Amino acid sequence: MKNNLIIPMSFLFGLFLLVGCENQDDNVGASTLVPSAGASLSVDIPFGTNNTLVEQNASYDFTVTISEPQIVDVKISIAQTAGNATSGDDFTIPSSIIIPAFATSATGSFAILEDEIAEGPESVTITVGNERTANANLSPASFTFNIGNLTAGELEVGLSWAASETVTDNGGTEISATDLADLVLQIQDASGAVIHEADGAAFEASTITAEDPDGEYFIVAKFFDAMDIPADLNLSTSFDQVGVLNADSYDFEAALNTQIVCDNNFYTLNKVTKSGDSFTIESVGQASSYPQDITGTYDVISNGESTDDGPENNPLVAFMSTVEITDNGDGTYTTSDGWAGVYIEWYSIYGNTEPEPQVLALDICEGTLSSSWTDIFGGTHELTGTVNADGTIAVRIDNSFGDFVDAIYTPQ
């Protein structure tokens, strides 16, 4: 049995320092001393702060550095403070790290242990430093291992994300990726049915099991929630298979945006083809087909009726015109003429001879358009529309005089 290890680490870089020890420490008779003023610690993690690893015998070194050397050894305690993973069976970690006197750094190791025991999901939280803080400015730091199970014939899929650019709160503090957005990882079959889904509070992982039938599967990311801060998200997937793949990864830049949180906004990341115990992974990188952009030139066919006795072409049947829709850059669009030439066709006899550009609001999640305006005669107008999957737009316009038109916009 082999396990899969997910390591999200959130480090607080001010750490508890022990210089020597009291009787409660290993070094009996020594004292707990306060580090020299201004001394601080940092931790360098060259293997990254978020890793997905299939369990195998391997160690991962990190370095603790103090900003200025001390005249005695500096002892930093390490302890398991939460979780059900077992030290000595699933992992090993030292109980402390010592920076020698007059030195500025020391190295510690996390060792992952391979075993053949079938276990349920496990986790472990490690805390560097403890409650006996010798200096109020130095705080313990913690990190957590979440350990999943993998057996032969299974493929674990991991999903992580990051803002394309740094996002901060009003105080200038950087907002973490998992606070900025909560994503859902789905494994869908070729029909679009969801076979497996992961929706936790952090980066996600799910598994195509040995029992799942052979065939094609698609790895999909979508929103559960997001902060009301506009930001593009870079997505990354990783794949692990016992003895075959170890954190095989794929990256997708600006794949989702936090302004569009709905079921219609999703991103297909990879296609996985399962054949027995073998998996073939391909990059897809395809945004959902919801209407992200309706900019363009459209041929319009309109049918409608005016309540005025003056227009000759009334009722209007298959009236053809052309409009241009442009992006305003703020989530709205402008059409070059609200009635797409119909009002000019009917009411040029009264001096209405110029197109009337109108602003259109696009509800991306619903795929609907809306607009309202008042014309030169004082009449009010309401436009509603639906963006269809083939790119055409169905539009209905009604005014306060009782006129109406139904139109189909077809992109050129």
Structure, explained:
- This protein has an 8-stranded antiparallel β-barrel with strand order 21-22-23-24-25-26-27-28. Strands 1, 2, 4, 6, 8, 10 and 11 form a 7-stranded antiparallel sheet that branches.
- It is built from 2 helices and 28 strands.
- β17 (232-241) and β18 (245-257) form a beta hairpin.
- It folds into 3 domains: 2-150, Immunoglobulin-like; 155-287, Sandwich (Lipoxygenase-1); 296-411, Lipocalin, CATH 2.40.128.
- By secondary structure, it is mainly β.
- The radius of gyration is 31 Å and the shape is elongated.
- It has helices at 177-180, 342-347, and strands spanning 2-10, 18-19, 41-44, 50-54, 58-66, 74-83, 91-92, 96-99, 105-112, 122-128, 141-150, 155-163, 181-189, 194-198, 204-208, 215-226, 232-241, 245-257, 266-275, 278-287, 296-305, 316-327, 332-335, 358-363, 368-374, 380-387, 393-399, 404-411.
- The longest helix has 6 residues, at 342-347.
What attributes characterize this protein structure?
412 residues, mainly beta, Immunoglobulin-like, Lipoxygenase-1, Lipocalin, 3 domains, eight-stranded antiparallel barrel, seven-stranded antiparallel beta sheet, disordered N terminus
Instruction: Record the strand order, biggest sheet.
Output: 21-22-23-24-25-26-27-28
What characteristic shape results from the CA principal axes?
A: elongated
Order of helices and strands: EEEEEEEEEEEEHEEEEEEEEEEEHEEEEE
Provide the number of structural domains.
3
Major beta sheet, specifics? 8 strands, antiparallel, barrel
Question: How does the helix and strand content classify structurally?
Answer: mainly beta
What percentage of residues falls in helices of 4 or more residues?
A: under 10%
Strand content: over 45%
Number of helices: 2
Q: End-to-end distance, in Å? A: 58 Å
The total strand number stands at 28
In quaternary terms, these chains amount to single chain
Low-confidence stretches: 1-33, 131-138
CATH architecture grouping of the largest domain: Sandwich
The name of the CATH topology of the largest domain is: Immunoglobulin-like
> What would you report as the Rg, rounded to the nearest angstrom?
31 Å
Name of the top-level CATH class of the largest domain = Mainly Beta
**Overall mean confidence score, pLDDT:** 83
